[in-house]
């Protein structure tokens, strides 16, 4: 999931979010500053904007900022640089305020000749790891437009000093705005020329940039003159240049298509196989005595719901796009007209009233706010949560929904449901019973919500029947919502996470839920309590003789820290007293193995373009470890983790480092996953030579091309939904077949699949190691198919 923020002048050229087909407009927040005018040159507007962004970005800021501000300079084109100085400095100040450390910034500029502009570029150079100045080919060649690209914001005192300095300049320029109309007072220089000249590299860089763009501008002007004098001239190279550019940047040459229309049932079919559960009746726990009858209470986690059977306000909500949100009610989908979700989202929620404090003029008053509380989710946007436990999907939902959906300020009409923030409070068993006992003795005096008269036409499906005489009480802490009817307490039981803290090198992490479990380790999703960032913690039990694999993984991940397709390790700690190793890792989504398992269970097959994408992602990841002299030795779909932009390789417990002067590594045991293990990893080389001094000592050779074999098995599975040896059920027979040099792997022809792709798979699954292609050769072949 992602989110965006925008800042624009309040005018006729506002954001047209509902014209966007790239992403849901709900994930974008358009803002206009404390003055509501969207003027970036007002320093308090900048402060208001970065305060809002940091509140919604865990206090860190955005990963990337782009600014493309401008205004008409008709009649003063040669003064555009001077007239734009205030805009330049305010856009750069905004970047220093809202971009997180190591984030990036792109902004549009024009001529860069004055001391003011050069000084500003000089300061930005000091704040970022590197900068570039680029005039794209798509930019009009005859004008002076260009773009400043800043990579990697530095997080140091120098950046803070420059940020404060630019803020003072922006404030002064705003104060001088009236004076400039009637006097010559201005700011012409912000960094002394002597300091700039002392940096030879910067001066050479900026001079060369201006000269290069100037030369190209001359060529553009001359070309415009030629075409202007002869209207019949045509440049036939444009289509060829477009094709070559797309190929160079590896962008598929396909037309942009609108998002397909879908119905709530279409989305439901993507998430589940059967709809029967939607009509299931709610199990009601009427009192504490019945609640105590739950067996194995320690296996449950609980939360309290504010809905009842009478009010029927707890149900499924789905967004199918184009601001169309539906609710499942009385065995049919009912349109909800004043609610915004992300397209593709399918949630189980309850709609309640909450009492909140709101400042009205100079007084703080208690007001009623309608809120949707999320209980569970099947989909969040394009992300499926159907197969996750409530523990997993619940926390994932809170991280996405409260930061994306409820915080967005999209306004299609004046009548919009103002959704409150979503609370997700867990209860332990004893806390739950205590809350229930207290609630039974609490006075009941708050009426149930009814829609205002002006809302009745658009929210008729939410009206509560007044004959039910249901009375609701809402605690001010917004953590428990109870309903009573004729003194009967009715509370649906809902599972929620039960938090637990763990420390790694004195930093607190809150365990949220289990991500996976192996024979020697458990992996949890966790939250850094201080920075509020998600991580994964791998707990390795060394009592089972797993010290070698645990410390081996740490050693190899240290070496691979700069590889962007390998899971990142942040920290680790060995607890001597417990003989336990804790490894703090980057958290991704589900693994590729789960994706393939889900497809197999639903009798579905991946489309070719998805197969090619996954194949390329895996090849690039394995290439990175081979370049670093590492063979993974256990490649399988479960060891490729979904991340935002593709796949990352994980689990280096049995991986090995191959020495620079060697081509393989010898092991005293065969290890790997049976459906993906290579033949040579199963063959004991020591038994081949009776006269060898090492005869009788097991020796299994692993090479880089052992990984190639494993990849071939995965590619085969992507294509056919099963591995090459999946049809052999008996383990011993399967191992013998893998080691059999005469066994022929079958490659049935698939409709719509080029034979070249099947050949690429067979190039990986060659019994003889020397006949297999290397990773580099495979990448070349797959790139030819993919691009």
TrEMBL record:
GO-annotated cellular components: kinetochore; nucleus
GO molecular function ontology, one term from the record: protein serine/threonine kinase activity
An individual GO BP term: chromosome segregation
UniProt keyword Transferase, yes or no: yes
Alphabetical keyword list: ATP-binding, Kinase, Nucleotide-binding, Serine/threonine-protein kinase, Transferase
Domain RrmJ-type SAM-dependent 2'-O-MTase: 1-154
Pfam families: FtsJ, Pkinase
UniProt domain Protein kinase: residue ranges: 509-785
Name of protein: Cap-specific mRNA (nucleoside-2'-O-)-methyltransferase 1
Species for this entry: Aquatica leii
């Amino acid at each position: 999931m992602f989110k965006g923020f925008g800042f624009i002048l309040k005018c006729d050229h506002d954001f047209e979010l509902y014209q966007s087909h790239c992403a849901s407009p709900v994930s974008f927040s358009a803002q206009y500053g404390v003055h509501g005018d969207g003027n970036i040159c007002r320093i308090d507007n900048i402060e208001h904007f970065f305060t809002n962004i940091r509140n919604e970005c865990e206090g860190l800021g955005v990963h990337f900022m782009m600014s493309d501000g401008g205004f008409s300079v008709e009649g003063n084109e040669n003064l555009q640089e001077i007239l734009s100085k205030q805009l330049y400095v305010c856009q750069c100040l905004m970047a220093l305020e809202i971009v997180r450390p190591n984030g990036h910034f792109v902004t549009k500029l024009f001529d860069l000749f004055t001391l003011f502009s050069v000084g500003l570029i000089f300061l930005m150079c000091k704040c970022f790891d590197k900068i570039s100045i680029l005039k794209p080919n798509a930019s009009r060649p005859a004008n002076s437009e260009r773009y400043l690209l800043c990579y990697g914001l530095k997080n140091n005192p120098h950046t803070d000093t420059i940020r404060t300095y630019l803020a003072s300049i922006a404030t002064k320029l705003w104060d001088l705005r009236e004076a400039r109309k009637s006097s010559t007072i201005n700011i012409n220089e912000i960094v002394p020329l002597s300091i700039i000249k002392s940096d030879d590299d910067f001066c050479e860089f900026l001079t060369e940039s201006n000269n290069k763009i100037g030369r190209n501008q001359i060529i553009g002007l001359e070309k415009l003159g030629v075409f202007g004098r002869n209207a019949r001239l045509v440049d036939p190279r444009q289509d060829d240049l477009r094709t070559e550019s797309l190929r160079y940047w590896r962008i598929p040459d396909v037309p942009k298509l609108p998002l397909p229309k879908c119905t709530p049932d279409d989305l439901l079919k993507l998430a589940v196989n059967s709809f029967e559960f939607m009509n299931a009746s709610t199990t009601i726990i009427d009192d504490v005595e019945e609640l105590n009858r739950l067996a194995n209470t320690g296996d449950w986690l609980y939360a309290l719901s504010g809905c009842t059977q009478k009010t029927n306000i707890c149900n499924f909500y789905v967004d199918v796009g184009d601001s169309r949100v539906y609710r499942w009610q009385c065995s049919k989908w009912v349109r909800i007209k004043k609610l915004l979700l992300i397209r593709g989202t399918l949630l189980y929620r309850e709609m309640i009233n909450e009492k909140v404090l709101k400042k009205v003029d100079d007084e703080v008053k208690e007001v009623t706010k309608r809120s949707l509380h999320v209980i569970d989710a099947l989909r969040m946007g394009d992300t499926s949560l159907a197969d996750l436990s409530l523990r997993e999907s619940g926390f994932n939902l809170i991280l996405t929904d409260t930061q994306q959906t409820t915080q967005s300020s999209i306004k299609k009409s004046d009548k919009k449901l103002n959704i409150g923030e979503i609370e997700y409070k867990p209860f332990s068993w004893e806390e739950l019973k205590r809350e229930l006992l207290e609630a039974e003795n609490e006075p009941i005096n708050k009426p149930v919500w009814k829609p205002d008269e002006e809302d009745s036409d658009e929210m008729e499906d939410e009206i509560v029947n007044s004959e039910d005489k249901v009375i609701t009480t809402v605690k001010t802490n917004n953590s428990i919502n109870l309903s009573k009817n004729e003194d009967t307490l009715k509370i649906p039981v809902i599972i929620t996470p039960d938090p637990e803290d763990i420390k790694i090198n004195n930093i607190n992490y809150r365990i949220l839920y289990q991500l996976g479990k192996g024979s020697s380790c458990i992996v949890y999703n966790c939250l850094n309590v201080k920075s509020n960032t998600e991580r994964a913690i791998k707990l390795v039990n060394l009592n089972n003789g797993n010290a070698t694999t645990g410390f081996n993984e740490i050693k190899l991940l240290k070496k691979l820290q700069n590889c962007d397709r390998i899971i990142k390790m942040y920290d680790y700690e060995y607890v001597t007293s417990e003989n336990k190793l804790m490894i703090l890792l980057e958290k991704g989504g589900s693994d590729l193995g789960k994706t393939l398992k889900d497809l197999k269970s639903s009798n579905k097959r991946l489309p070719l373009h998805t197969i090619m994408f996954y194949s390329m992602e895996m090849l690039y990841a394995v290439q990175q470890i081979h370049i670093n002299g590492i063979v993974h030795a256990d490649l399988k779909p479960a060891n490729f983790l979904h991340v935002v932009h593709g796949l990352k390789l994980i689990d280096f417990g049995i991986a090995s480092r191959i020495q620079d002067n060697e081509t393989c590594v010898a092991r005293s045991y065969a290890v790997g996953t049976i459906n993906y293990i290579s033949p040579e990893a199963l063959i004991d080389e020591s038994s081949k030579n009776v006269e060898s001094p090492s005869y009788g000592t097991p020796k299994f050779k692993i090479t880089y091309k052992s990984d190639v074999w494993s990849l071939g098995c995965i590619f085969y599975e992507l294509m056919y939904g099963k591995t090459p040896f999946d049809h052999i059920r008996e383990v011993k027979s399967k191992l013998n077949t893998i080691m059999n040099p005469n066994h022929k792997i079958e490659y049935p022809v698939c409709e719509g699949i080029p034979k070249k792709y099947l050949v690429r798979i067979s190039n990986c699954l060659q019994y003889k190691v020397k006949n297999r292609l290397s990773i580099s050769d495979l990448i070349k072949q797959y790139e030819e198919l993919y691009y």
